[in-house]
Amino acid sequence: MVLLQPDPFLNELTSMYERSTEQGSVWVTLKRSSLKSKVQNNKLKAAGDPIEYRCLIRATDGKKTISTSVGAKDHQRFQASYATILKAHMTALKKRERKDKKKATEGAGSKKARQGS
User: Fold this and answer.
1) How many CB atoms lie within 10 A of CB 103?
2) E strand or H helix at 14, and its extent?
3) Cα–Cα distance between 117 and 103 in angstroms, integer?
4) For 53-89, b where at least 16 C-beta lie within 10 A, e where not — what string?
5) Which of 18, 20, 42, 44 could form a disulfide with 24 if both were Cys (CB 3.0 to 4.6 A apart)?
6) For residue range 54-96, what is the model confidence (pLDDT) as tens digits?
7) Could you tell me where the DSSP H helices lie in 34-100?
8) Where is 62: in which H helix or E strand?
């Protein structure tokens, strides 16, 4: 697993999505992390120092795994760029078939009328 800076991570994520347009999937996970071991975290807690948590983002297409760490200061900018990439590559999703609300309510109303009589 490769820990990249946020901008190269987004570039690599874009290329992962492009490679998987015809076949395959891309999994992205986000997790709160301090990037320190439990022993180091316990020492910081004992000393009274605040622990700086970061957002650890991992992406994989089954063959290649990449990751990055984003701090609280850069989170807004990263999230905006990430959202743009997601919107651009969600074209392969199928639209969900929705039932017509009028038909659903008429059907439920007629059932109640039949059950009452």
Assistant:
1) 9
2) helix 6-19
3) 22
4) ebbbbbbbbeeeebbbbbeeeeeeebeebbeebeeeb
5) 20
6) 899 999 999 999 999 998 899 999 999 999 999 998 876 677 7
7) 38-47, 75-88
8) none
